[in-house]
Design the sequence.
């Protein structure tokens, strides 16, 4: 009797641990799913560019950007981080010179880490680092990007038209996952896109 009570308590604790903002968090051995899960449950990320600005030229420069890989809800994400950008933005000016960038997203922005009292730097508060480049989306992909972004960030629709906003995506070439103790895990883009969050 005591054994089954202990087993039930352990199972309940595990279910609590697996509960996250958008559903059950993937287990640590499924790094590709974790990367998809974290991106899909994040509304913004830190984008790092190489600065083209006077006095900072060639130095790393990180900035916050709203993003989306699809409308909220389980299994509705494409895995592609879409952004809504303007050439007036300082980081976009950097990208015009060098389109290479890195993007970091973390479950620290969801209720998950607060609920479990995980500091944002704790590996259990999973974060993903993407490397790649930013590219404007073509006309055939613009509708998908618009739906992904405006469903999560409705304010974007009312942003000033004279800022010449455009849809862009983060073209992923490398992925690092930190979601457990023992260091970073490397996930290939092929592995990443072949799973659902």
Sequence:
């Amino acid at each position: 009797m005591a054994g089954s009570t202990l087993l039930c308590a352990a199972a309940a604790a595990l279910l609590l641990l697996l509960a996250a903002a958008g559903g059950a968090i993937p287990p640590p051995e499924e790094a590709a799913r974790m990367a998809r899960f974290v991106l899909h449950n994040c509304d913004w990320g830190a984008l790092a560019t190489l600065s083209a600005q006077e006095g900072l030229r060639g130095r790393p420069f990180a900035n916050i950007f709203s993003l989306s890989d699809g409308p909220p809800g389980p299994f509705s994400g494409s895995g592609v981080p879409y952004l809504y950008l303007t050439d007036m933005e300082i980081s976009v000016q950097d990208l015009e010179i060098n389109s290479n960038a890195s993007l970091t997203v973390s479950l620290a922005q969801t209720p998950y880490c607060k609920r479990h009292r995980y500091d944002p730097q704790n590996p259990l508060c999973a974060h993903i680092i993407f490397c790649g480049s930013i590219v404007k989306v073509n006309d055939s992909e613009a509708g998908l990007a618009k739906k992904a972004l405006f469903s999560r960030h409705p304010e974007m629709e009312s942003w000033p038209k004279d800022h010449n906003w455009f849809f862009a995506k983060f073209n992923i070439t490398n992925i690092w996952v930190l979601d457990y103790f023992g260091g970073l895990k490397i996930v290939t883009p092929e592995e990443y896109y072949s799973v659902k969050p």
